[in-house]
Amino acid sequence: MTARAIGFGAGLGTEPQVQPGRGAPDDVPVVSVESVTKRFGEVVALDDVSLTVGAGELVGMLGPNGAGKSTLLSLVGGQRRPDAGAVRLVGADPRDASARVSLGVTPQETGLPPTLKVREVVEFVGRHYPHRVDTADLLGEFGISDLARRQTGSLSGGQRRRLAVALSLVGRPRVVLLDEPTTGLDVGARQALWAAIRRYHADGGTVLLTSHYLEEVQELAERVVVIDRGVVRADDSLDAILARVALHRVVVRSSAPLDALPGVVRSERSPATTGSGRLDRFELYTPDADALVRELVTSGVTFSGLEIRGASLEEAFEEMVAVPDGSDGTSGTSGTNEGSAR
Amino acid sequence: MTRREARGQTPTAATPSGTPTTTVGDAGGESAALPGLLALSWLHLRFQFLETVRVPIAVLGNLIFPALAMFFFVVPQEAVAGNPLFATVAVAGLSLFAICSASLFTYGLGVAEDRQQPFDPFVRSLPAGPAPRMIGRVLNGAIFSLFGIVPVVLIGWLFTEASVTALQLLAGIATVLLVAVPFTLLGMGVGYSLSAKAALPVVQVILFPLAFAGGLFLPPQMFPSWLDGISMATPTRAGRDLVIQALTGEPAYSGAWLVLLGWTAAFAALAVWAYRRDEGRRFR
């Protein structure tokens, strides 16, 4: 194992170490997005978004389809220009070709030139960079050495994904943008890709990735940015985000104001319906369901129909991003009772 | 490379983390030695050539049609094939047709197809401006255009009385490449403004009337005077006469260069307009 401790240093052992350039001292953010707005006709894809990513961070971007994640990545990659605000890649404009030396991007898996062989595509992309990873090393790293002579048109979806992610790393970029890197992969292939992304990150690389899979973000990211309808809804460490969303749901009927119980961070109270014994229905969200139930029992209030369920991350994020514009705080979905609860 | 060899390497994927050599992020852009424009253009040319040549039917199509036209319309006609001047003129006309066809198809259809491929936006994210890709494309088209005239020239040399000196041949080929410029630009104009589906019929509708009116199939001496007037305003006719002038010394009509330059300017404007419009649509 040690004989082939690859990392992305495999090729560099023989090359002179390159010092970080003048333009890029460590305190310059790798990615900086300042008050960026981007419209497509009537649609506002990004509305005054700001985001700063420092060297070595691994940031996961979550959000539903059409939230603006891909638009944000295309701005950082220099493929589009913002209508307002500024985007910087290691201090430079990503629309300048030379700035993009620090950038690695994945092609869409369907977009590989079908007649070129795997090693040719790697070679082609790699030669755009001053210090590329050796093709054989890179393919070995991703476990696709045996595909080197195959035309990309004959690869399976999983093989193409691996090649796509490999291509983003061939130029030893400071930052890679991974847009849905493992969509449609089986578990094994996904684990292998995650391992490669972790290795790159362990070597000091910066990663900005989007995913539909919370599991993926939870697995990889240290910091999570939630985007919805062109706005950053949350930007925090993974733990903080998890604490915020990893809640249990307690459903119970009672006439007492249960939403004031300690530990309830969010609640929804629906008025009694006929046949429910004049008891209101409460949906209470809490990080600690056991404590809440204990509290409920010892408080001596009358209640019935107790149900407890862990709210999945998936649901939690859905709720987080499902706030109708302008109605913040009115309904239980985001209205917090933190003040009254503590 | 065998499968067995590669198996041995797969465990690397499970290595938790490589040695923390600082291999990532070698510099912010300018301090690193970027590959030069020449190197990048060569790179793009090489891989575009590979991409094209691996679709043999595309290559053969370019070679076959003009060659067949030689066999059907020139070789059997003793009056043409047996006359050194007429035969040379016929070879010149069909060579130019091969070039026009290759230029219009490679650029018109090729560009339109490329724009639909998701690889194109990826290439734009690489640290290179649009120039290397563009230069590669133009040169790649020129190479396949030249392939197209090889069979025509060979057939003319082997089966007809067509004859030129080496110097005339070189002058002819140089002129043909020069005449290819406006057609390349026209092709790009089409390719950047239309989808691949629309580009194909449009290219055909442009190519055949232009080729006919320009006298690439039938000598314009057979045209009625009104058609001859129209013919002299086409880029194909101007190109044809200039190529013939280079090959045989038969002088082209006086406005030929002007007509060719005029069309070149017009098609250049079209290509630039279409490119910008496409940029504006897809990469706002």
Classify the secondary structure makeup of chain A into a structural class: alpha/beta
> What is the CATH architecture annotation of the largest domain in chain A?
3-Layer(aba) Sandwich
**Given the C-alpha coordinates, what overall shape of chain B results?**
globular
Largest sheet of chain B: none
Tally of DSSP helical segments of chain B: 12
Which CATH class of the largest domain in chain A is shown?
Alpha Beta
C-alpha Rg of chain A (nearest Å): 24 Å
Please bin the fraction of helical residues of chain A.
25-40%
User: What is the terminal separation of chain A in angstroms?
Assistant: 53 Å
Order of secondary-structure elements of chain B? HHHHHHHHHHHH
How many domains would you count in the coordinates of chain B?
1
Q: What is the CATH topology descriptor of the largest domain in chain A?
A: Rossmann fold
Strand residues, percent of chain B: under 5%
State the CATH superfamily name of the largest domain in chain A: P-loop containing nucleotide triphosphate hydrolases
Average pLDDT of chain B, rounded to a whole number, is: 82
Radius of gyration of chain B, in Å, reads: 23 Å
Largest inter-chain contact set: A-B, 82 and 55 residues
Number of helices of chain A: 10
Biggest sheet layout of chain A: 6 strands, mixed
Number of DSSP E strands of chain A: 13
Report the portion of residues of chain A in β strands.
15-25%
Protein name (chain A): ABC transporter ATP-binding protein
Pfam family, one (chain A): ABC_tran
Biased composition (Low complexity) (chain A): 325-336
Keywords (chain A): Antibiotic resistance, ATP-binding, Nucleotide-binding, Transport
Topology (SSEs and partners):
The complex is a heterodimer of chains A (342) and B (284).
Chain A: E1 31-40, E2 43-53, E3 58-62, H1 69-76, E4 84-89, E5 103-105, H2 118-126, H3 135-141, H4 157-169, E6 175-179, H5 187-202, E7 206-210, H6 214-220, E8 223-228, E9 231-237, H7 238-245, E10 248-254, E11 266-270, E12 280-286, H8 289-299, E13 303-310, H9 313-321, H10 338-341
Parallel strand pairs in A: 3-7, 3-8, 5-6, 6-7
Antiparallel strand pairs in A: 1-2, 1-4, 8-9, 10-12, 10-13, 11-12
Chain B: H1 3-7, H2 37-53, H3 56-74, H4 78-81, H5 84-116, H6 119-124, H7 131-159, H8 166-193, H9 196-213, H10 225-232, H11 235-248, H12 256-282
Helix pairs in contact in B: 2-7, 3-5, 3-7, 5-7, 5-8, 5-9, 5-11, 7-8, 8-11, 8-12, 11-12
